[in-house]
Design a protein that fits this description.
Blueprint: H1 8-33, H2 35-43, H3 48-60, H4 65-75, H5 77-91, H6 93-96, H7 98-103, H8 107-128, H9 132-139, H10 145-170, H11 179-198, H12 210-214, H13 217-225, H14 228-258, H15 263-291, H16 293-313, H17 320-352, H18 358-389, H19 394-416, H20 427-434, H21 437-451, H22 455-465, H23 471-480, H24 486-496, H25 503-515, H26 521-530, H27 537-543, H28 549-561, H29 568-577, H30 581-594, H31 600-607, H32 614-627, H33 631-643, H34 645-653, H35 655-659, H36 666-680, H37 684-697, H38 702-717, H39 724-736
Helix pairs in contact: 1-2, 1-10, 1-11, 3-8, 3-14, 3-18, 4-5, 4-8, 5-8, 5-11, 9-18, 10-15, 14-17, 14-18, 14-19, 15-16, 15-17, 16-17, 16-19, 16-20, 18-19, 21-22, 21-23, 22-24, 23-24, 25-26, 26-28, 27-28, 28-30, 29-30, 29-31, 30-32, 31-32, 31-38, 32-33, 32-39, 33-34, 37-38, 37-39
Length: 743
């Protein structure tokens, strides 16, 4: 349990402080440990092994996290973090003096200061790193964790881009005074101190957890690695960081050694690489919380593989600008994939680790992070030196190097596909969404919905989501069903109607029917019928008893769509006895969908009512046609009849002629049929004869034929002959099943 949990206002303040710190820390980190150190060492004539060793310090720092674990209980999580981050910028000051000694003819001292300063910087960083996971976990806690972590990445990479461009401006060429490196390092120290001192504004209890400090690290590690899924993730994470350590420093070496680019152009490439990492932040910000960390981790590994291809191909160019453009694209994609892997892996870790495990498991996470990166940097430097000393050309040595990197990345890709997923979607489903314009739009709209601040904005975004149905947006819409606002719930339901209904959606709709009578229950009932949710039959049956007549009406139609035969007699009774016009209309529609011939008695009885409104009468007539299985055929004729009764009747009587076009004597037979039908309804006896003939010629079974005869004759006797629309219906039935030979 937390000693003292951050309040919402404290979390907002902590997020702002941490974002401010991230901007200055990222720029400072680049100036003191990034590619500038690689370029500086190359300027001093360092070998690949030395460059790999110094690059490995960044990852080796995580080995000292165990020392921090022993200190944090006495100092506190936040204090340790703030103190170590400040102290490391003080300890790195001697490295600033390295160029001074080089200029005085003491390159050995210059090398030593770089190595000692870098090592001291990273050791203290490693001690403070024990606080990193609980602090970030606490500050980023919430449904928007992936979004916030991506924002931090965007700030980090944006700051790195600015710093990289400034470095490129100061390092104009190979003749750049070496003293400028000292100035840039000094700027890194100053910016680092500004960022670190700002951390003291965070609440002191940020990241504090009781059980984290109480549990023994060994027992916690044993419990973590006892989980097969976590064990596989850490193995794959080691491989991912091994590949990052093996690749990141040496794409700089590749640009400088293979293509001979000067420091300025190389730093511009480095800045473009950070632009790729920044682009990664925007992509992860949109996708990470929606699709889950595992699919995004797999996606960025695929991008990483694509980036490596650029350094394998390595074509020969005639102009420097061609080299620069080619490598710029390679740097962009490589860093997009590499930093994307790191960001997604961090989000995956927070999904896998409970809050009370974040400190101890975080130590394991960063230990593996450092071990993999350090091993990769060492292995990369040694491998590259070995290849170059084996007689291969620079181009071929680097090509073999990156081919091996590509092969190991394929192994990582396969392994990452097998780790446990904590999101809603499988890797395949998530990748399909990534390449679907509709799903991407749904993701963007869902993110916008999460950030809405006003009632009208929320409604507007939900309405837009109707045009982009996707299972991605369903979770956000289901959350809106908890809104106290009828309008918001109603908009969310209409948007859900265009989405596929899974079990979670169906359960939410059922709850809506049960809990929101008189408001949105009716819409939920309609959607349950449209989605053919068989599990909703019970609650829809209960809804037939509701005093909310709109809910009752929608439930009747929904049950008919679900083919619930148990409810048909209940629906017939409601339709027969009610005086509510809407219930009659919906009941008639439900009976039409059922298509049960026994329901004709109820429908014809309604048509006998003398005070029946014309709109209701027309709906019932269409229902009768539906029960008889001729609604699709009858509807166009009925529409024409409503516009002009004479034209509609003539069109109806022409139907047999069109159906038997070219048959001998058809025109005469049709003329006779017209005459008999047009005059038949003038007296009841003629109407009776027509009905008798019609029933005799229908394909209905004998029992049903007798039922129809009884129902229709009863309608005629009760005044149906005075209803022109009803006469038109019976005429249509006669025409539908006419036999011209017996006319």
């Amino acid at each position: 349990m937390r000693i003292l949990e951050l309040s919402p206002s404290e979390r907002i303040r902590s997020r702002r402080v941490f974002a401010f710190f991230s901007v200055f820390n990222a720029a400072s980190f680049l100036l003191l440990t990034g590619n500038i150190i690689t370029l500086y060492l190359l300027r001093l004539g360092a070998s690949g092994t030395i460059i790999g060793m110094v690059s490995s310090f960044t990852y080796a720092s995580f080995f000292f996290i165990f020392l921090g674990r022993n200190i944090v209980g006495r100092v506190g999580v936040c204090r340790l973090f703030c103190g170590c981050w400040t102290l490391r910028y003080i300890l790195v000051v001697p490295m600033v003096l390295s160029p001074v000694f080089v200029l005085r003819g003491m390159p050995g001292v210059g090398f030593a200061l770089v190595i000692a300063g870098s090592l001291a910087f990273q050791i203290v960083r490693g001690i403070g790193m024990v606080s990193n996971s609980p602090i970030i976990g606490d500050v980023s806690e919430g449904r928007d964790r992936g979004d916030y972590l991506s924002v931090i990445q965007i700030l980090n990479q944006g700051s790195s881009i600015v710093a990289g461009l400034c470095i490129a401006f100061f390092l104009s060429s190979d003749t750049t005074p070496i003293g400028r490196y000292s100035m840039l390092m000094l700027a890194g120290v100053v910016m680092g101190l500004v960022g670190s001192l700002s951390l003291f504004r965070m609440p002191r209890h940020t990241g504090s957890v009781q059980s984290q400090a109480a549990e023994n690290l060994f027992h916690s590690a044993k419990r973590a690695f006892a989980q097969k899924s976590f064990r596989l993730f850490m193995l794959m994470f080691f491989l991912v960081m091994f590949l990052a350590g093996m690749g990141r420093p040496f794409i700089i070496v590749y640009a400088a050694d293979v293509y001979g680019l000067d420091d300025k152009l190389t730093m511009y490439l480095s800045a473009i690489g950070y632009l790729g990492a920044m682009l990664m932040g925007f992509i992860a910000k949109v996708l990470l919380d929606r699709l889950g960390s595992k699919p995004i981790l797999v996606f960025f590994t695929g991008v990483f593989l694509l980036g490596i291809v650029f350094f394998i191909v390595g074509p020969v160019f005639r102009h420097v600008w061609e080299v620069f453009l080619f490598l710029a694209l390679g740097f962009l994609i490589f860093n997009l994939g590499s930093f994307g892997q790191e960001n997604a892996a961090q989000a995956y870790f927070y999904s896998a680790a409970r809050p009370q495990d974040q400190m101890n498991w975080g130590i394991l996470y960063f230990f593996v992070f450092g071990l993999g990166g350090a091993a990769g940097s060492f292995a990369g430097g040694i491998l590259l030196d070995t290849l170059e000393h084996s007689g291969f050309s620079l181009m071929l040595a680097h090509r073999i190097f990156f081919i091996l990197l590509f092969g190991l990345s394929l192994v990582a890709l396969v392994g990452l596909c097998r780790i446990k997923g904590y999101g809603l979607y499988s890797v395949r489903s998530a990748l399909n969404m990534l390449f679907s314009a509709r799903d991407l739009r749904a993701i963007i709209l869902t993110n916008r919905l999460e950030r809405t601040k006003s009632f009208e904005d929320e409604r507007r975004v939900i309405r837009e989501m109707r045009t982009a149905p996707s299972e991605v947006s369903a979770a956000g819409l289901l959350m809106r069903l908890r809104s106290p606002s009828f309008m918001i719930r109603s908009e969310a339901l209409h948007a859900l109607e265009s989405n596929a209904a899974d079990m979670k959606t169906v359960n939410a709709l059922i709850a809506e029917v049960q809990e929101h009578e008189y408001t949105t229950a009716r819409t939920a009932a309609r959607i349950l019928g449209i989605k053919e949710a068989r599990g909703a039959v019970g609650v829809l049956r209960e809804a037939l008893k509701s005093e909310d007549y709109l809910l009752c009406a929608e439930s009747m139609v929904a049950l008919a769509r679900l083919r619930d035969k148990h409810s048909i007699r209940r629906i017939e009774l409601i339709t027969k006895v009610t005086a509510n016009p809407l219930l009659i209309i919906f009941g008639a529609e439900a009976l039409r969908i059922y298509g049960d011939m026994d329901s004709l008695g109820v429908l014809m009885e309604i048509l006998e009512r003398h005070n029946l409104a014309r709109d209701i009468q027309n709906e019932v007539i269409l229902s009768v046609a539906g029960v008889l299985g001729m609604d699709e055929w009858f509807y166009p004729f009925f529409c024409a009849y409503g516009e002009d009764s004479r034209v509609g009747l003539l069109n109806l009587l022409d139907a047999p002629l069109r159906r038997r076009k070219g048959a001998a004597g058809v025109a005469d037979e049709i003329s006779a049929l017209r005459g008999s039908l047009q005059s038949a309804w003038k007296d009841g006896e003629a109407a009776r004869l027509i009905i008798e003939k019609m029933i005799a010629l229908t394909p209905f079974p004998p029992g049903k034929a007798d039922f129809l005869r009884r129902v229709f004759l009863q309608t005629i006797e009760n005044g149906g002959k005075d209803r022109p629309e009803l006469r038109f219906l019976l005429t249509a039935v006669c025409v539908r099943y006419e036999s011209l030979e017996d006319t």
